[in-house]
Design a protein that fits this description.
This protein is mainly alpha-helical. α1 packs antiparallel against α5, α2 runs parallel beside α5 and α6 runs antiparallel to α7. The longest helix has 27 residues. It is built from seven helices and no strands.
């Protein structure tokens, strides 16, 4: 996994820096929508609220197990090998078996779950795989990419320094100033 190969982040950097907070919110919205769709499908398949709860539980649990594979790297899951981390594989297998135990055995009664038609289970499995498609598409399009970490205070200081030069030497041409600040910060901190 390439996460362990990255340089340490500065100690004053927030945990949600560099777009991580936005990614978490967007993925949370995706999982919420998938779970609500699953609930409606399960309720319609059985005609009971418990059917919706069963389907929502299944999709939410399985999609989170699958998401563990997506979050291993900012590179494609298929590039790094989906089954190359043996401890993760074991943990996901145990988690999958526990979900299956709750859904397919009499233990489901304690959770308020019911038996669904087999086609509904297949639809739930398909819904659970949607995050893989979305995340792989995002990685392929460059929406999720390797971040270069640098001190936020340094960038703010550098931008302030460039703005002072801009006001004194260039005048009030905002396009030139924006280009100058962007170019200078990229050269010094990402090169």
């Amino acid at each position: 996994s390439d996460v362990m190969n990255q340089k340490p982040r500065p100690k004053d950097e927030g945990i949600f820096a560099h777009g991580l907070g936005i990614r978490i919110v967007l993925q949370g919205i995706m999982f919420s929508i998938l779970t609500l769709i699953a609930f409606v499908m399960g309720e319609n398949a059985v005609g009971q609220e418990a059917g919706g709860q069963t389907m929502a539980f299944m999709v939410l649990a399985l999609s989170q197990i699958i998401q563990a594979f997506n979050m291993r790297s900012e590179h494609s899951l298929f590039r790094i090998g989906p089954f190359s981390n043996h401890k993760l594989n074991l943990a996901c297998l145990v988690s999958f078996l526990l979900v299956a135990l709750v859904i397919f055995t009499p233990i489901r009664v304690a959770f308020g779950l019911v038996v669904l038609p087999w086609k509904t289970y297949l639809l739930g499995l398909c819904l659970s795989l949607i995050p893989v498609v979305v995340m792989e598409f995002s990685k392929a399009c460059g929406l999720i990419k390797h971040q270069h970490y640098c001190s936020v205070k340094a960038i703010n200081f550098r931008a302030l320094f460039c703005k002072i030069i801009y006001v004194r030497w260039i005048g009030n041409d905002n396009q030139v100033a924006s280009f100058y600040i962007y170019f200078d910060a990229r050269k010094d901190f990402n090169g």
